[in-house]
Amino acid sequence: MIVNRRKLRYFSSLTIILIFSVILTACGSNKAGTNQSATDGDNLGKKDLTIPYVAWATEVASNHVIKEVLNSVGYDVTLKQVDTGPMYIAVANGAADAMISAWLPYTDVSYWDQYGEKLVDLGPNLKNAPLGLVVPEYVDIDSIEDLKKNTNSIGENTEWTITGIDPGAGQMQITEEAMDIYGLDKWNLQATSDASMMAALDKAIKEKQNIIVTLWSPHWAFTKYDLKYLEDPRQVFGEPDDIHTLVRKGLEEDSPAAYRILKQFKWNKDLLEGVMVDINNGTDPADAAKKFVKENEDLVKEWTEGVK
């Protein structure tokens, strides 16, 4: 599907957002009859937790890991795959308990400006996460400006198309802005998904064809393929983001141990990429998370320190 870039940021309709919000509310954290006292022996409080996430390789890996850790101390975590907007809405209105997939301060700024006052920011769980336009190393261009110049006929070679992810993603909004700022009037931004974009990238590389994708780090693609970011001399994509953990107001009182674990959950690019590679190689995400927890006991102890 080719999306007019000037309308892209409004692509996800209010109806879709409300549907996802209703689904999360129905299956979310405020289940009657499941509360325990926050001062009981295990310090868990309310045990049923709902965590929404977006189906990007980064977030599939990280959310299954945090689910495994929370489950291991006694929580019952439900992961809900949604789009970016519904993810923010669900945590902000209390239909979900937490999200560990907030790209701040740049990529998700529009969502933060709208919902930030209703959220509690526990800080970064992973630092230095850049994003931008990416091409295979063999593609003979180096800068976003080369797209306007049509250097080496890159436009014709790619049918004037940049292959992106889901239309509600903050990165798609920034890419749209970049296309306006760099004057890429002939170009279209194709909204797909992380999985579809990676399938297109894999096909292009196997055939040694030109392709431009909206990608970010960490991502397993950088361990499998020789890729490069296009230079962004006008700094539209900005400095690298951090990936933050956000929780609903009241979680600290309702589920104090979960709040503590989520606040202490911090790791690095290499650890996350290891989980992503396992999943991309065919390991079920839940099994990849179990493997990670087993192989990183000392780190998990840091995340769960202070939990009874």
What does this structure look like?
- The chain is globular and about 60 Å long.
- α1 packs across α3 (84-92), α2 (57-72) packs across α12 and α12 (269-280) crosses α13 (285-295).
- α7 links the parallel β7 (161-163) and β8.
- The N and C termini lie far apart (50 Å).
- The protein has 14 helices and eleven strands.
- The model is unreliable at 1-42 (pLDDT under 50).
- It is α+β, with helices and mostly antiparallel strands and 308 residues long.
- It is 41% helix and 19% strand.
Q: Provide the CATH superfamily of the largest domain.
A: Periplasmic binding protein-like II
* Spatial extent as radius of gyration: 20 Å
Cα end-to-end separation? 50 Å
SS-based structural class? Answer: alpha+beta
Overall 3D geometry? globular
Helicity level, as a percent range?
A: 40-55%
Number of strands: 11
What is the number of helices?
14
Widest β-sheet, arrangement of strands? 1-8-7
**What's the CATH architecture of the largest domain?**
3-Layer(aba) Sandwich
What number of domains? 2
CATH class of the largest domain: Alpha Beta
- Summarize the biggest pleated sheet: 3 strands, mixed
Order of helices and strands: EHEHEHEHEEHHEHEHEHEEHHHHH
Q: Kindly estimate the percentage of residues that lie in beta strands according to DSSP.
A: 15-25%
CATH fold-level assignment of the largest domain:
D-Maltodextrin-Binding Protein, domain 2
Whole-number average pLDDT?
A: 88
